[in-house]
Every structure is written in structure tokens, then in C-alpha cells.
Amino acid sequence: MNNYxxxxxxxxxxxxxxxxFSILAQEKLSPLKYNNALMTGNKNxxxxxxxxxxxxxxxxxxxxxxxxxxxxxxxxxxxxxxxNVSDTTWYRxxxxxxxxxxxxxxxxxxxxxxxxxxxxGRGFDSIILVSKTAFASTYVDVSxxxxxxxxxxxxxxxxxxxxxxxxxxxxxxxLILVEQTPDLYQDSSTVYFVAPTTEDSSMIWIDNFVYRNxxxxxxxxxxxxxxxxxxxxxxxxxxxxxxxxxxxxxxLTSKAINLNTKPNGGNYTDADSIYFSxxxxxxxxxxxxxxxxxxxxxxxxxxxxxxxxxxxxxGEPISNFQVVMVPITxxxxxxxxxxxxxxxYGTLTGSLDHWHIDYVILDDFRTVNDNxxxxxxxxxxxxxxxxxxxxxxxxxxxxxxxGLLKTSVSVKTYNSLNQAKIIQxxxxxxxxxxxxxxxxxxxxxxxxxxxxxxxxxxxDIPSTFFFDTILADTCAVFDVRYTLSxxxxxxxxxxNDTIMKHQNFQxxxxxxxxxxxxxxxxVSNGAELAYKFTLPSGVSDTLRAVKIHFVSSVNDVxxxxxxxxxxxxxxxxxGNIIYTTDDPNYPLTFTPHYDLGNNAFFEYILPEKLVVSGxxxxxxxxxxxxxxxxxxxxxxxxxxxxxxxxxxNWNNTSFDGSLMMRPIFSSAKDYEVTxxxxxxxxxxxxxxxxxxxxxxxxRFENRQEATVLLYDLSGRQLKSVIxxxxxxxVDVSNxxxxxxxxxxxxxxxxxxxNSKIIVFK
Length: 761
Description:
single chain; Jelly Rolls; Immunoglobulin-like; 5 domains
């Protein structure tokens, strides 16, 4: 794809919708340029090795198996004081094993004593060089302490200075020492060595480039796959210098494996019938790899110390998972230290050219027909038990704890064996603080699970089942655990027989699962995007902020401006604007924030809080035609709640999925009083002077531990002042005349005061 990537991205935009005119003029869905789920910091050490960590890996024995339902990737997060960490310090210079003192330096080229004199009778105008005598050299052991492993060479060196001797001053030498910039100097590097732990023995993979997930595959064999694309281990493009950048992207590399000696004695031979197998799928719900792209499998030969390609596949349209069987019979592989790895060739500029692999198995006594996993496993994450939402405020749920739950849920499983599996007792367990507080047994009406088929485990939720409101106050987190069981032949894996759903009740509503598979946006100046939410019957609460997960795709629009807006309902569509920051007197604009990490939502605070009830819509109005690219969850479909307006009419989106936008409510008990409380009066806050010239004060009746945040009208944070007391002074002497927003947040991140402040000098 090296010369086609830019064209392909444009075509990808068009193919995502059946309505060509709509996509050109209105809304767009694009691949991700970054993968926020992977953005957890750089795991690689670069530069000088001082204070770096060197990891040792244990060697694995057969069998090797991973379906990516659990995390078997090594973590490079050791600390200097960990019990499995030791250290060694190397010095750059030594002679005969004796370390040179700190401050010692040498040149790697000759240095000299220069002797000068004057011609008799001509004075200083006739200074001439009389002699040039080289210093004696010596031999020093020089260690390269900037790179590991440390290499030491015996090197001829000279002093790091020259002598200058003037003979005209008398018979005694008049020496002047002139230091040179040394080529070598005494220094040290300490390297920390990390030994394998007991926990490491269950790890298989030594790199972290691929994306382990359960959201990109279609009809997977079990929950969890390893996804290959054009993003590195931190979720960034491998190469964003050019839209046509192409090459090797992700690697997935195993630890060393002993294919020489059997665990119980003896040596492996081709008679042991060792096979390496895996299942793969192209695309999933991602982007299709073209024929120029490929997935490659390589084996490491300890005998020849080289990687050798043993299988590859060109890009192709999506299909079901295909199983590949590779025999290992050659003696160059049947060695201690054998390894395997996958790599993909594709576009290096984003989340493109997707390959997904599952069920990696390396074992003996197999046949070429041993291409079934013999496993009944969960396929996808567990669903939310809340009607319509994945999360909602706990006080809202408390108003109707039975009525706000679903009456039934279904979890998807897959039987990868070519024969039916008998269903044994399975269940749904509700846990709070790791303790089971309720249970729903699975009612087996099917008798068994059909061969090589998906099977939905349906649960009817009893009318007595609920999240106990006595167990928590303003927020709560419950765990919903699903298990399945069969006695049909021993299964290869049991770790995928249990899944857990964390049911969150915080202070916001959410439709999404927290992971973006695409980026959604509108391409029109003044375009409006509205997202529909409905509070429970009888609940009125104070909307104080909106969380939005923006993702960067194709272009960086982090400086593009938008206004926050709220609409009422008009027969199932956005109606009148009931709140906007597009105020003609005090307009307040915001910009997309590309924060790092999975579930990384930026909190956009409303300058003035708003009481809402019933059905309402939150969203934005753009001040440019830039596509703002909000994260789009393609696994949970709420398209009927997504509306856009690029002129005078509201339209439903044409894409299946959910926006990653979450309204946040201010008080856990606001719904009880059903009116907007004046929080400024609640804390008896006074801000003065306003307008301010060089500074202003905020005074509280009672002592506060809080942070003062000052924003300009574009949403840029200008100041952050932490204080503990009754009064805080804020310096604004460096600000220009104009209007600003002052927000005070308590230590638990709740807003306790907000107001406009005018700077006028």
C-alpha cells in the first residue's frame, strides 16, 4: 500500500456508508490515527544505559497456548528496590583491573610538550618553536558504558593536556599546562538486572506492540484477540511523516522455548509430531488489508541464529477465522531456544490494515487435522444490566432499582469443537466488594451447544434481582460474573469460561463501552451534534459538565473551536436550545483534548449549571468545518440517539454505534430538591474586585482545600492555584483585558464555585 494509503483512506470514508452524497456533505466516520487504549507511556529505554533495566526471560516448555482472553504479555515496570532486581556498576576506565579515580581523563591521540624560544636580539617578535616532544602513552581498559552489553577494549591513550615551555625566561623550564577537551573520561553506569518471577512463568510474549482487545474481531472463537495494525505499543502511528509510509508494523514475539529436551526426559524428534497452529482473521470491524499488505509467521533457528519465514498471507476481505497448521520437524528448530513471532506489513500512519489472531498453540502429539480448539468459551464482554445505558448516576438508579434494570440479558459463547458440548451448571453472580450478594442460575433449555457454532446464553432477570441500594451511598461498583461449564472431554482452556462485568454507578450517563473503534465527525461550519439522554421518571438533576473522548484521525484539529449546547425534546428530536456557551455577551468556546489512555474522557465544565429532567440532548455547535472526531464505539448501537444538523433540519446518523460523550451531574441528591441550588451561597463565597486590575480575591466563610482554575473564553486553562484556607489571591497582572471564567474545585474534583471575572486595567 506504499503509494496508495492516502487514496485508500479517502475511499474508506466513502465505503462506510450507503449514502455517498451524505458522507461528502455531512458526517464522516474514519479510522483511528491513534489507539488511546494503548497510550500508557513509553516502555522502551533509549539513550544512555545508566539506571536502565535489563530483563532476563525464563525458557518455556510445551505446551504453549494463548487465546488472549487473559494478559500473557511481559510488563517492563520493575523498580530498583524490587526483590528480583540486582544491580551492577561499570566504570569507563581501569588499568589492570584497578578502577581509575573519578576525574581521570585521556586523549586517544598524541599530546605533546611544546618548547618555544626567541631569536637572540629580536625580542618577543621572534618567538619560534624549538621542539615538539610527544608524551609517553599508556594502555587503559576502556569500557563502552553507554551500550549494553558492556564491551571493554585495551586502548592506547595520552594525557588530556599539552605543556608549553618558554626558554627565554631563564634556565629553569617555565611550563604552562593547557588542558584539552578529553576524548575519554572516568564515568560510571549502573544497570539493574531483572530476574524472572514466579508470575512471569505464565507469560508468553516479550513485546507489547500488538493490541490485545475484545472489540475489533467479528465472531471470534473466544473472548480476546491480538490485533495487528499501523500503531505502536503506545497507540501512536509508527510513521506519521507521510500518508504513504509503509513497512513492518507490529511484532508479536514469544519467549525462548525448549524444543530440545522433553520435560520428562529424552529429546524431541520429528516423531513427536510437534505442530504450531493459530487462527487469524482480516479486518474484523476495522480496516481491510489490501493485497500489498501481509501477515508473516517466522521461526527462530537457534542452530543458525536467524529468523526464517515459514508462512505468510496477503491481505484479503474479511472472512471467518481460519486455522493454520505448521509442522515443526527440522532439526534446526528442535533446539533449546526456539522462538516464533508474527509481524505485519502495512500502512504505518494509523489504525489501518487490521489482522487479528487467536488460539496460538504449540504442542506435541498433534496431527494436521488437529485444527479444532476443543473449547466452549465466551466470545464478547458481558453486557450492562442497566436499561439503555452502560453506566448511570447511583442516586438516579436508587429512585427505581428494579424498573431501571433489563428484564433479560444474553452473553455470546462459541463451541470450537466439531461435536456438541453438554451444558453443565452455569450462572450469573452479582458481587459487591468481592462477595456474592445474588445469583441467577442458567436455565438450560437447549440441552447442549451445537458443534462449531455460536450459542447465546440467555438469562431472565427475576423481578427480585437488583443492585442493593443499602450497600452504597453516592456511587457504587458491582461485579457481574458469568460462568459456563461442560463435561464434554477435557477442554484446552478454562480461563475463558468466566467473564466479569464491572457495573459502574458514578455521576454520569454512558452508552459506550469506553473503547473507540473509529472517529466520528461533521464537516460543516456551524454544524450541530446532539446526543439524546433521558432521566428516570420523576428525576430532576443538575447538569454540570460533559465528558467527551476525542480521538485524532487523519488531521489534528485540537485548535478547532466549538460551543457546548443542550436542547430540549421535540417529538424524539432535538428541540429548543435551553443552554449554549455561544452567548453574544460572554461567548465561551472549547477545543478537543486528546488525552491519553483507555476511557480518557476530558471533562468540559459548563460555566453555568443547568437543571434538566425527562429527555434532553447534549452536544456541540462547531465554529469551523473541521471534523472534530469524537470517539465512536462500534460495538454498542445507539444510532437512534445521535442527531446532526448542518442546516435547518435534524437527521439521524447513518452509522451504527455510540458516541463517547457522557453528561455529568453535579449533586448526588439534587433530584430530591428538584431545583438548582446556588452552590456559591452554600459556601458563602465572595469574589472581589470584579473587574480586577492586577489580582482578585476569593473568600470563603469556612476553610477550604481547593484549586482555583482560570480559563479564557476559548477554553484554555491559564492558571491553576492550589490553596488551603479562607482566602486566596489570584494574580492576573499578566493577562490582557477581557472576560475570563473562574472555577474553584474541591479536592474530590467537585465544583464549589464558578463565575465570570473581568480583567480591566
